[in-house]
Task: inverse folding
């Protein structure tokens, strides 16, 4: 391990010691409550606090970050001397070349920093300190830009809040580490939950975990996944907007740590034929203003309330419409096939890990942990748009009181067509083209995303699918080369 890795590993050990000490103290709610407290403190930060923080941290570069339509992190960098003006007036930039933003004749856009997202980045640039803030994108009149994915999500969160619902999520993010971008050579040969010191897989996950903790992203668990060189990091369950920000931070952190270790990290859903793909299973629930979990009900078999069942019903009914956002690439549908533990069938259950939505088992005294696990999203998605459409489908279920079908506790992969018909089980779209057909016809998606994002997304993904259909793949060349 290099000096950078050793330093981060020591930070990680100190952090674990502190967390354990707190968990064993009287404050048993520390692990669940600490980030909420930090978030409240962060939201209270004002201009003078940020100005002082930049001075204290000896910051020389400030990255203003935002997301394009596909979920790629974009940024502009400024000097601290520009900070005060930026906090007062925003920072102008040209949005015409950003995917899903504006046309060239209306290119002027404004970045407004969200003060609660200030972070000291642990990667010096030319040996100088760097900070970042995530920004809201506004139009010249300082009105929120309808094409900003983060704003799309904030809009649907506000709708939920008006009804007394607060959306919380906890994603499990899978990814591969290869020795290089070009070769896709495995970094290790381990399997599910394996401890593999010879391949340094355990070491690099520890460095990633410590880096994320340094960045304020609490990690609940990390482990090796089923395929060689495949890993999973589960981040803390919490406020959905903050978690979406954390997913963006996590992707940046993992790619940076991998690069500093001479490796290449990819969130491509299915980078290798014949092994499991990478998903982003997402746990979700609604909380009330009093902090209670609205999905929990004591007397029910699955400990689910009527609200939870309606939310579940809404997601099952609309899943094909939202699939193009949750699984947004041509490659996404190479993961969603039988035989690799990825969901294919639209059903739900508890013990059944072949189901699209799983209800994790209830533990006495952990009512706040009652949740639904949606298993089809993958890490190539834009987390702001993905969480937005997930919430919108659930809210529609509540509004229309959509009852879910009966649970299926058998392995659906073993069902033949007649049994699938017996249980009224449909399938997810087979490819991006099919997903876009359902997306195109969806009133829910147009209402949720707004006309601008809906049309831009439809245009971009239809173009992507058409490009793929016209391309000649290596498989075709090998299959038909002797014709």
Result:
């Amino acid at each position: 391990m290099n000096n950078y890795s050793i330093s981060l590993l020591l930070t990680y050990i100190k952090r674990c010691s502190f967390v354990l000490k707190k968990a064993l103290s009287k404050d048993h709610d520390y692990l669940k409550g600490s980030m909420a407290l930090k978030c409240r403190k962060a939201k209270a930060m004002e201009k003078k606090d940020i100005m002082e923080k930049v001075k204290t941290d000896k910051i020389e570069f400030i990255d203003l970050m935002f997301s394009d339509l596909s979920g790629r992190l974009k940024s502009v960098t400024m000097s601290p001397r520009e900070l005060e003006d930026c906090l007062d007036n925003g920072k102008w930039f040209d949005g015409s070349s950003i995917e899903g933003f504006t046309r060239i004749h209306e290119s002027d856009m404004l970045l407004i920093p969200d003060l609660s997202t200030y972070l000291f980045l642990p990667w010096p640039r030319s040996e100088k300190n760097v900070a970042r803030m995530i920004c809201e994108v506004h139009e010249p009149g300082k009105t929120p830009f309808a094409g900003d994915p983060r704003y799309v999500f904030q809009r649907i969160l506000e709708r939920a809040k008006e009804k007394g619902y607060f959306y919380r999520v906890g994603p499990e993010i899978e990814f591969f580490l290869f020795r290089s971008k070009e070769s896709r050579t495995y970094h290790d040969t381990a399997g599910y939950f394996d401890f593999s010191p010879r391949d340094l897989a355990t070491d690099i996950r520890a460095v990633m975990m410590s880096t994320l903790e340094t960045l304020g992203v609490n990690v609940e668990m990390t482990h090796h996944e089923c395929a060689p060189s495949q890993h999973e990091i589960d981040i803390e369950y919490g406020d959905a907007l903050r978690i979406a920000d954390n997913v963006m931070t996590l992707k940046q952190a993992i790619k940076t740590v991998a690069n500093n270790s001479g490796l290449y990290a990819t969130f491509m859903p299915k980078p290798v034929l014949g092994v499991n793909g990478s998903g982003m299973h997402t746990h979700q629930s609604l909380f009330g203003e009093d902090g209670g979990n609205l999905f929990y009900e004591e007397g029910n078999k699955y400990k689910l309330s009527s609200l939870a069942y309606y939310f579940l019903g809404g997601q099952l009914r609309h899943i094909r419409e939202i699939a193009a956002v949750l699984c947004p690439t041509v490659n996404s549908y190479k993961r969603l096939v039988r035989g690799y533990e990825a969901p294919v069938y639209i059903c739900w259950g508890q013990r059944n890990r072949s189901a699209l939505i799983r209800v994790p088992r209830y533990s006495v005294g952990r009512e706040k942990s009652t949740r639904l696990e949606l298993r089809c999203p993958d890490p190539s998605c834009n987390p702001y748009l993905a969480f937005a459409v997930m919430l919108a489908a659930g809210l529609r279920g509540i509004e229309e009181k959509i009852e879910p079908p009966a649970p299926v506790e058998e392995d659906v992969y073993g069902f033949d067509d007649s049994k699938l018909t017996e249980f009224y089980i449909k399938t997810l779209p087979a490819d991006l083209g099919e997903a876009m057909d359902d997306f195109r016809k969806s009133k829910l998606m147009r209402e949720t995303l707004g006309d601008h994002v809906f049309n831009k997304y439809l245009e971009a993904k239809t173009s992507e699918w058409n490009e793929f259909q016209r391309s000649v793949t290596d498989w075709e060349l090998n299959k038909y080369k002797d014709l």
Remarks:
- The radius of gyration is 23 Å.
- Residues 199 and 437 are 44 Å apart (CA to CA).
- Residues 154-475 form a domain with the Creatine Kinase; Chain A, domain 2 fold (CATH 3.30.590.10).
